[in-house]
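Practice problem: predict the structure.
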Amino acid sequence: MVNKKDIIIRSNGEGRIFKIDPNNPESKYSLPINSILKQHYKYILNSMNKENLTLSDDEECMIFKEIVLIDKVVGFSTYKGADANNHNALILQYIYVIPEYRGNNLLVKDIIDTISLGSYVSIESPTRFMVESLINGGLASIFGDRFVISKIPFAAPIHNFTIKEKEYLKKEYNIPDPTGINRESSLYDLKYCAIVCPAFDGSNTAYNPEDDTTNSLEDGYVSDILGVDEKYFDVSENRNDGELYSNKYFKRVSGVIKKYNDDIDEFLS
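Answer:
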């Protein structure tokens, strides 16, 4: 539990924002997340360590935001650029709230605040807890017994670039933050704790990592298991149902979307 004396107070209720100017060639594009935490928010970093949550020292962001509850800085969020040609397109990378201050829809507030600044926002690799927060905050809804449609799209990482690949892309193509390739989808499976990306061609063809004839960029894709979800939701056991990576699974997905198509359209409108 965090000592209340250590918590930073913002009397006006507005959190501090660290950000770079991507239009300034002399401005460093990415901010080191751990360095900011160590310098300004040791009590938040200590809280993370107690939960065995760590970030590597090479983790960087484009925007670092304080999360404020009334007047207390109780967490942070980080965003990176989603499109090198559109600096208003952002991906929520990380969000952390001190345990005793959770349950106050701070994720939803942070996303809405960021969108209000004129940004397009998606969420990279959300945990099930995050998806449930979106549901509770009215930004997502359950259709059927397990599938969720979100007004805030999700980004599922397909390939993470090596340091060498990043440097090459920065130098040769002037891509400021080439973190990897994502597939975007508004669909989430509560049972699998996964982002679900239907096939681009509208078929029920599933990507299978053990089948070289399938393609993770174009076929139906189910995102990988996150450590937090495995810890709390027994995801590996839930996925051992004979449907994972199968066309049968995406036929199920298509059936749910078709059945609730009008309701989904109304929710997203």
